Amino acid sequence: MPTVLSLEEIGQILRAIKNQKHRAIIMLVYSAGLRVSEIVKLRIEDIDSNRNLIHIRSAKGKRIDIRSFLQLVALGELKKYWKQYKLNGWLFPGAKMDRHISTRTVEAIFEAAAKETGIKKKISVHTLRHSFATHLL
Fold first, then answer.
1. What is the CATH number of the domain that holds 83?
2. Handedness of CA 39, 46, 76, 70 (dihedral sign)
């Protein structure tokens, strides 16, 4: 059985993240059930805020595109993020604006937040995907 975080533990992790960009990343991973490889490759045009959808291109390394719903709370975090950063192309650019953030950086963001909360479970960014699916049920 996969490890699942409680709603309270998810809240603790999100509250531990002070950087707006980092909080938006982790919020979007959880609220849409995205893989870390999917979140890093999102482009600005993949967010359809009018229909509350996220367009995920080549999901899981395949040549298929899927759509996931965009929760209003995650959209709110994205709007705060958009106000702070001038974006062009990638939704979450890396150190160089012409490249997306790395999967390892997202993992490090999550690991630092989880460590700060003191959660003792063995968890990773992928745990957010399992938690999303479980909470959806």
1. 1.10.443.10
2. negative
In a domain, 102, yes or no: yes
- Each of the 137 residues of the chain gets a pLDDT tens digit; together they read 889 999 999 999 999 999 999 999 999 999 999 999 999 999 999 999 999 999 998 766 666 788 888 999 999 999 999 989 878 889 999 988 789 999 999 999 999 999 999 998 999 999 999 999 999 88
Residue 1 inside a domain? The answer is: no
Q: What tokens were used for 81?
A: 């993020």
Count the domains in the chain.
Answer: 1
Torsion of CA 109, 112, 118, 121, to 10 degrees: 60
Residue 126 to residues 45, 87, 100, 114, 137, Cα–Cα distance (Å): 24, 26, 19, 13, 17
Tell whether 2 is covered by a domain.
Answer: no
